[in-house]
Design a protein that fits this description.
Blueprint (H helix, E strand, L loop, with lengths): L3 E3 L2 E3 L3 E3 L10 H7 L4 E3 L16 E4 L2 E4 L12 H8 L5 E5 L6 H11 L3 E5 L9 H5 L2 H14 L4 E5 L6 H7 L5 E4 L3 E4 L1 E2 L4 E2 L5 E5 L4 H14 L4 E4 L5 H9 L4 E4 L2 H5 L3 H16 L15
Parallel strand pairs: 3-4, 3-16, 4-7, 7-8, 8-9, 9-10, 10-15, 15-16
Antiparallel strand pairs: 1-2, 5-6, 6-14, 11-14, 12-13
Helix pairs in contact: 3-5, 5-6, 8-10
The protein binds flavin mononucleotide.
């Protein structure tokens, strides 16, 4: 009933772990897999190891989280073992990558060789200069990267887009060569410590996520779904099954969950999956496709 297929990748349910969440504690992909996630996305991996920014890099706010981790990651060389271990749980693993424009195709091939089921292009990190943000706001760059990666690998390619632009649809159309779109990455923001009287994050700017951004994510999915037929994975502010239903009604084929783990723990996957199933039974839906996009007014 909950199974979904996106460009040939079969997920036992449509609730996936979003990229980069809780990775600083390691093993988050494995935990999510064991707690019922239908699939997992790795943290974004670049060409070489990066330490990321100095602390503080994450602050919990009343309506979400703001982070500027700075794409800290072990580099592709050191990443293989982690992916292999998650693959043992028999759920799809999507390898997320970031880099300079010319790095994406190489990284995607490396991910394919490691054995991931699909690759997610992080074209959207809002707080790391020279990487995702500038690229992700430039439709020509997005189009070129997607084309180049598609030419270079045979596994499905997902393009994760930024909401930090005026026209979501323009970027979505530029990325339409991808097998699916992932909407949205974090929203650029600043949090200020009123007693220290300075920005909370060492990087000043961060990416805002969690409950406060849900309407922005739902709007992005809705706007793109109204105009395009491409598979969409909705992400942003999902903390319960009702939020997942909202995204699906706006047109999402699947969803990803990130910050909710900070608030609710890994059991959030099981709660969302169970809640979705109960909702579908009550409403008489036999598959996700039965109600996907139902709320989109054309
Ligand atoms: C601490 C943290 C680290 C993140 N790291 C990444 C990352 O490496 N790559 C990426 O594409 N998105 C990253 N994201 C963005 C999430 O994958 C997701 O798009 C965003 O947080 C919105 O979903 P949420 O509200 O469920 O958290 C990160 C988010 C957080 C909070």
């Amino acid at each position: 009933m909950l199974q979904v297929e996106i460009s040939g990748i079969r997920f036992k349910n449509p609730v996936l772990l979003a990229s980069g969440i809780m990775d600083e504690q390691g093993d988050s992909m494995l935990r999510a897999a064991r707690e019922g996630a239908g699939g997992v996305v790795t943290k974004s991996i670049g060409l070489t190891e990066r330490e990321g920014y100095q602390n503080p890099t994450v602050a919990v706010l009343s309506t979400g989280i703001i982070n500027a981790i700075g794409l800290a990651n072990p580099g592709i060389e050191n990443f293989e073992d982690e992916v292999r271990r998650v693959k043992e749980e028999k759920i799809p693993v999507i390898g997320s990558i970031f880099g300079k424009k010319e790095d994406y195709a190489f990284l995607a091939r490396r991910m394919e060789n490691i054995g991931v089921d699909g690759v997610e292009l992080n074209l959207s990190c809002p707080h790391v200069k020279g990487f995702g943000s500038e690229i992700g706001q430039d439709p020509d760059a997005v189009e070129d990267i997607v084309k180049e990666v598609k030419r270079s690998v045979s596994i499905p390619v997902f393009a994760k887009l930024t909401p930090n632009i005026t026209d979501m649809l323009e970027i979505a159309k530029a990325a339409s060569g991808a097998d699916a779109l992932v909407l949205i990455n974090t929203v650029r923001g600043i949090a200020i410590d009123i007693f220290a009287k300075r920005p909370v994050l060492s990087n000043i700017y961060g990416g805002y996520s969690g409950p406060g951004i849900k309407p922005i994510g739902v709007r992005a999915v809705y706007d793109v779904r109204r105009e395009m037929d491409i598979p969409i994975i909705g992400v942003g502010g999902i903390t319960g099954w009702e939020d997942a239903v909202e995204y699906i009604l706006a047109g999402a084929n699947a969803v990803q969950v990130g910050s909710a783990i900070y608030y609710r723990g890994f059991s959030v996957f099981r709660e969302i999956v169970d809640g979705l199933e109960t909702y579908m039974k009550k409403e008489g839906f036999e598959s996700i496709d039965d109600f996907r996009g139902m709320a989109v007014m054309r």
